[in-house]
Write a sequence for this structure.
């Protein structure tokens, strides 16, 4: 009997940024892999910092399918919200193809709804609201597709630990070791409930002391700043335009129209997907329901 195979796809979150071990990153996926099975699961991490849904579909998915995994995690979409090319219809189409491919192979698919970068960075409303709106759109797509494919879905966006500063690294965009352990613990619990994870869950307590304040500031001033610049350099002009639109609607008292427009775009994106007709688009829990797909 071959060992259980676990393949992780995604961006810097799954690559492990924020949880340094030696000269590299470990992260929640590696922590989860250690508690999946005996003998130890065969773990392959294909996640790459900066990856978008297009990268997962075109580059990471073929490599993952060739490994024929029993478990495949797909956490991606935040980087899409930080690009001027953001298109929720294309994001939905890509994620649908990725989830469907793993489901056809019989793999258990792990997905998650994630907090928006604007909130984590503490951006003012006129700048943060457009990013939050985009991330809510991505989360609604992920949540709805996860139900469609029976994925193991972590609704992390409303977890209490998300707002605990001690869970996050210096850049405020990536979990620290404690945060990565929380993600691993939650996925382990859901996989254990399904009878997939059979070994001891990862400890919630850090293995290593947190970085000193001076070390965190140094990282933020060098590698961290460079990371943010690389992710946002093409978004800034568009984000400023979105902020102007936000202020205009706020002044008119018509801000709700922006939320309605975003909900309608998600509805159209999901309605355009192939396969069985959608019984009706459900918004992410805790949000106002979006209009039903036509």
């Amino acid at each position: 009997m071959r060992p259980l195979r676990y393949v992780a796809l995604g961006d810097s979150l799954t690559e492990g940024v924020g949880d340094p071990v030696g000269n590299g990153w470990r992260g929640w996926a590696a922590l989860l892999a250690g508690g999946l099975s005996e003998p130890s699961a065969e773990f392959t991490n294909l996640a790459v910092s900066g990856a978008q849904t297009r990268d997962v579909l075109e580059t990471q998915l073929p490599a993952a399918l060739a490994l024929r995994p029993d478990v495949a995690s797909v956490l991606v979409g935040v980087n899409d919200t930080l690009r001027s090319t953001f298109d929720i219809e294309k994001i939905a189409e890509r994620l649908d193809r990725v989830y469907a491919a793993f489901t056809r192979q019989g793999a258990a698919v792990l997905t998650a709804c994630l907090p928006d970068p604007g909130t984590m960075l503490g951006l003012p409303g006129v700048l943060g609201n457009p990013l939050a709106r985009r991330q809510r759109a991505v989360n609604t797509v992920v949540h709805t597709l996860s139900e469609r494919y029976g994925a193991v879905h972590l609704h992390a966006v409303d977890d209490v630990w998300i707002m605990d500063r001690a869970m996050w690294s210096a850049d405020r965009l990536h979990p620290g070791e404690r945060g990565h352990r929380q993600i691993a613990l939650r996925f382990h619990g859901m996989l254990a409930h399904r009878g997939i994870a059979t070994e001891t869950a990862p400890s919630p307590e850090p293995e290593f002391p947190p970085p000193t304040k001076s070390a965190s500031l140094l990282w933020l001033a060098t590698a961290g700043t460079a990371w943010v610049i690389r992710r946002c350099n093409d978004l800034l002009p568009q984000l400023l335009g979105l902020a102007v639109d936000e202020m205009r609607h706020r002044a008119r008292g018509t801000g709700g129209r922006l939320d309605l427009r975003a909900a309608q775009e998600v509805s159209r994106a999901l309605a355009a997907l192939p396969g069985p007709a959608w019984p009706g688009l459900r918004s992410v829990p805790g949000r106002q329901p979006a209009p039903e797909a036509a």
In short: Residues 127 and 263 are 19 Å apart (CA to CA). The beta strands are 5-10, 20-21, 24-25, 42-45, 71-75, 108-113, 152-155. The two ends are 47 Å apart (CA to CA).
